[in-house]
Amino acid sequence: MSAPATMHPTVPTAQDTWARRLFTMENRFIPPIFITVILLVGHFSFGILESWKKTLLAIGCSLATELILGRTMTGKWPHLASAYISGISVGILLRSPALWPYALCAVIAITSKYVLRVKNRHIWNPSNFGICVMLFFAAESVTTLSIQWGNSLWAMLVIWSLGSVILWRLKRFHICAAYVASFFAFALLRAWIIGDPWQSEISPITGPEYQLFIFFMITDPKTTVRSVRGQVLVAFLVAAVEMLLRLDQSIYASLYALFLVGPSALLVEMWRHSRRSPLVNSNATAMLTGDLPRP
């Protein structure tokens, strides 16, 4: 009698294995490739870059700082994917007639990863931190990109389609979706409160700044809470704080909202985990010593 078909497991083909390895959290080259696509589509369609020289300066300073601090503080050569993303984000988002803000912002962004740590974990998204610090302390010299994707939506559709597929495979699309849904809901509420047309309140999300914010800043695996429910809640809170800041006429509401909410959520998660850990450890000790019945 021949064996049932269910007893013969399907061997994945080389193509299946390649596809699975391509879109996984371990493949750290996917986000750099994606952000480069945003850069190229945005610039050659609408000229979002102020200068290639300034963008390359930000990328170079970011990579150099990562190499120096990573080697000095960990004794190992770091992976440069995160530094590249931070540098290119600074190059796209920052606006200044001078060169030094791009270099300084990139250095601040990467340095924050190694200096501002809690329980061996950095709590701010590097590019978000660097840009916000520059806006706080050098407001007379810098601003941020704020244009929309013109009257054509094709560039935005390309970015959103590609980004949604990537985040879905990385199992982080729920963060993006939660923020976007919350943004639209709060935009309609804000339009009702202040009496502006709802289109003007929704329009910021079509800008290249928001594409970087949605796909890279709020979904950064290193600076988001671990549970899916917590990630959705944080995305909602970022949108809520952003609405309050916009009601206060804050120009950089989205960046400031993440700057405030993201680290706070991580600290709360660490605090809750530290309160549970002693109980878990004491139960394990009691089980080993026979004070608790074994399962």
What is the approximate shape?
Answer: globular
* Spatial order of the strands forming the largest sheet: 1-2
SS element count, helices: 12
Q: Helicity range of the residues? A: 55-70%
Whole-Å distance between the termini?
A: 42 Å
Provide the structure class: mainly alpha
- Taking all Cα atoms into account, the compactness measure Rg is 22 Å
Q: Tell me about the biggest sheet?
A: 2 strands, antiparallel
Number of strands: 2
Unreliable sequence segments? 1-11, 280-295
Beta-strand residue fraction: under 5%
Could you spell the SSE succession in H and E letters?
HHHHEHHEHHHHHH
Residue-averaged pLDDT: 82
In words, what does this structure look like?
By secondary structure, the chain is mainly alpha-helical. 68% of the residues lie in helices and 1% in strands. It has twelve helices and two strands. The protein is globular and about 55 Å long. The two termini are 42 Å apart. 34% of the residues are buried.
Give a brief outline of the structure.
The protein is mainly α. It has helices spanning 14-22, 30-46, 52-74, 81-93, 100-115, 126-137, 154-169, 173-194, 198-202, 208-217, 228-247, 253-289; strands spanning 94-95, 143-144.
List keywords for this structure.
disordered N terminus; 68% helix; disordered C terminus; 2 strands; single chain; two-stranded antiparallel sheet; mainly alpha; 295 residues
